[in-house]
Amino acid sequence: MIYTLTLNPSIDYIMRLYEYKDGFTNRSYEEMKFPGGKGIMVSKLLKNLGEDPINLGFIGGFTGEYIKSSLKDLGIKENFTFIEDDSRINVKLKYRSETEINAGGPFISDEEVNEFLDNISTLNSNDTLIISGSIPKSLDDNFYKQILDCNNVDFTIDVAGKELLDYLSYNPILVKPNIDELEMIFGEKIDKSNLLHYAKRLNDLGAQSVIISMGKDGSIFISEDLILKAEPIEGRLINSVGAGDSMVGGFVYGLKNGVSKKEAYKLAVACGTATAFSEDIAKKELIYEILKRVEVNGYGN
Known about the structure:
By secondary structure, this protein is of the alpha/beta class.
């Protein structure tokens, strides 16, 4: 089974405005709400591809009930640990730019933590766990380590900053920082002259596969025996939220369905691009249409 972990899920409340003025009353012309959180985004992508993932994490209150019912409506399975405090609401303002206001998340008691750990300890070596997103403020910063220490599963991890280095010795099957995050991880300015060097370091330190997102310049892929670059695909950017999560989901889906790492990378690129060109997580038809346009070549040394 593929499990997606969202410790801090949310309702993502999207408001579209013609313009935004700080300090004034602003009115939206369109509003939408979705169950949010990086792991949930991955699950939606996997479901669209035909996979049957199970969501894990914490939900609570009326917001948690909305998240649970929304996933049910989408036909997505969940085995969340229910807590007393309310799950968070994140506000996304979209006008000529994008502004996000993300809440810190609920308080989670020791009893609720123990219930969750008992639940997740049932995963085994045949399962894949996709770890992504923030840790609620009431949990220890090393909570992901607690999870990995009590499980022997293939996993991916998507966390920001230098803390990613703490997880490489666990040999994740994929990490996927962008260039800004790569700079945060190593405390160095990253450009074309040293990008490959620092991407390789993630691989050398334990990551089995590495994807570095480069925005309008595409992305690169590094594993023990492959160094590839995918060229950017032209199209209209509609929604950047979930594009990176879609790349992760596409790569894991490819590997779990027996394709090579090169083909899994191409599918990851197609998934991320298709979501960027969609209002929400990309549908299967658009993903496979874009997959035909993905161009991957050798890169660097």
